[in-house]
Amino acid sequence: MKTYKVLGVMSGTSLDGIDLAEIQFSFDNKWHFELWHCQTISYSKEWETILKNAYLKSKPELSELNEQYTNYLANSVNSFIEKNKITQLDAVCSHGHTILHEPQNNYTLQIGNLAKLSKLIKQNVVCDFRVQDVELGGQGAPLVPIGDQLLFSNYDICLNLGGFANISFEQHGKRVAFDNCPVNTVLNHYALQLGKPFDYNGDISRKGKLNTKLLASLNNLEYYKKSPPKSLGIEWVVNEIIPLINSFCLSPEVVLHTYSVHIAQIITQDINRYIPNQKTNVLVTGGGAYNGFVIEQLKKNSNINFEIPSPKVIEFKEALIFGLLGVLKLNNKINVLSSVTGSTKNHSSGKVFYYQNAIN
Length: 360
Fold this sequence. Notes:
The chain is α/β, with parallel strands linked by helices. The protein is built from 14 helices and twelve strands. Strands 1, 2, 3, 4, 5, 6 and 12 form a seven-stranded mixed beta sheet that branches. Strands 9-8-7-10-11 form a five-stranded mixed beta sheet, with helices on both faces. The model has no long low-confidence stretch (mean pLDDT about 95).
């Protein structure tokens, strides 16, 4: 049995912080994992604002931001390693932070993936997993489904409720996955209008009223009619979702309630479309798994069993899977599936920066 000890690092579009997970993987004709030390390092208000508005920056400004964020990421990783006395890592496997995701324009940008990261943290680094897939004609997203396939195959569907909702499942012997709809990118935006960083347990949403006209307009957006492969970026939220919601001039409470219902309806609609007429077991992870109101709305569909796992799996599943993507890349094994992203072929994506090379 071969074992690997890595650090999985993930920063999502919901901007709750940098997720770091110390993981041991083992392989004996099947992959197994153990999550050890895990932590989310929250962004300062300054960094949160910078990252939220980074899509507006020019290319030279983004290049400078990439340098600054790589330094910031390195400090966060070093602090985590030192605090938990972590030694003998095979690699740090880092997603970086998505600033722009425009696969229709053959472009995606995740900052924090510069070669100097390896030198700054004195570790081997595997990173920048999305660019190659876009170059091969794919969406560059979602990348997590191969981890769903290899680590969570006992579930019919894996559902992530993060900045965006995405699902993955097996169909006709192939993995299928796609983004369903924005989740925390929208909910947090309107919770902030009430002075809250997020809607704890969905308590604000639960007290609001449903606006059926807004719900119908949201449900009728063109993206939801498209077939996969498909993916979403923050630009779509800024250009489509927020202006649509604001045009109704509703209170944040009504928006939060209505948008939560929208999330549940889109997700259950997608599940029933692709896995109809059966009792379906769904693993739910991501920060949205703690939103009691969204979960209540999802559970209104009696054909679907939504299972909430341990807090470590809820919060660090994406960091866990990017750790696995890194291990697969180190072994030159497939870590991106064309059936998911629409690229021309399955491939082993990402860049590897060896610390020994960085200091030579």
